Amino acid sequence: MKVINNLSELITELNNSTKDDYAAIGTRLEIPIAQLQSYAHWNSNFYTRNCIERTDHYELILLCWESGQDTPVHCHGGEECWVYVMEGKLKETHIQVEENELITESIEILSKGEKSFMCDDLGYHKLENIADHRSISLHLYMDPIDTCTKFDEKLNTFEQVDLNYYSYKGQLEKALV
Ligand SMILES: [Fe+2]
């Protein structure tokens, strides 16, 4: 298996691939964080979604996490997602919903260099940065996901939300800063 250790190589390969190839590409990601530093932005209040590249077929996003930041429980809009932990350590909790109850199915710890796959057939999940410092993860989505369902803990119910970028191709999105 040939690893992909270069961002431009990854984008070229994605642009020349069909959807059937994405699963293999998702498992070959070995890109050093130094190549993606210009895409990494942080916010002390929430983890950030930084779009590196987007086409009609895929979306490549760098997630930047301060220690303790986490996602809500969420689905993936019917799409597939590969996660590659580039720095730090994430806890991934897999959740099933039965009769409006959230049931934890499994918990995985993803350390630097480890990968995970998620799609709606596997239920819901949430991610949390459990490192005592920043974490960074690279996410490949097929296709782009603009809305998803997330669990609102205050309202104790799921709701549909629009997904935004904190930055796009390295530039901060003004509305969110
Ligand atoms: Fe997710």
List the helices and strands and how they pair.
Elements: H1 7-15, H2 19-27, E1 48-54, E2 59-65, E3 80-87, E4 89-98, E5 101-111, E6 115-118, E7 124-129, E8 135-142, E9 147-152, E10 157-162, E11 167-168, E12 171-172
Parallel strand pairs: 1-11
Antiparallel strand pairs: 1-2, 2-8, 3-6, 3-8, 4-5, 4-7, 9-10, 11-12
Write a structural description.
There is one protein chain. The protein has a 7-stranded mixed sheet, with helices on one face. It has a 3-stranded antiparallel sheet with strand order 5-4-7, with no helix packed on it. It has helices at 7-15, 19-27; strands spanning 48-54, 59-65, 80-87, 89-98, 101-111, 115-118, 124-129, 135-142, 147-152, 157-162, 167-168, 171-172. It contains 2 helices and 12 strands, in the order H-H-E-E-E-E-E-E-E-E-E-E-E-E. It is mainly β. Bound molecules: fe (ii) ion (FE2). Fe (ii) ion is lined by residues 74, 76, 81, 118, 125. Fe (ii) ion binds next to loops.
What key phrases describe this protein's structure?
177 residues, 12 strands, three-stranded antiparallel beta sheet, mainly beta, binds fe (ii) ion
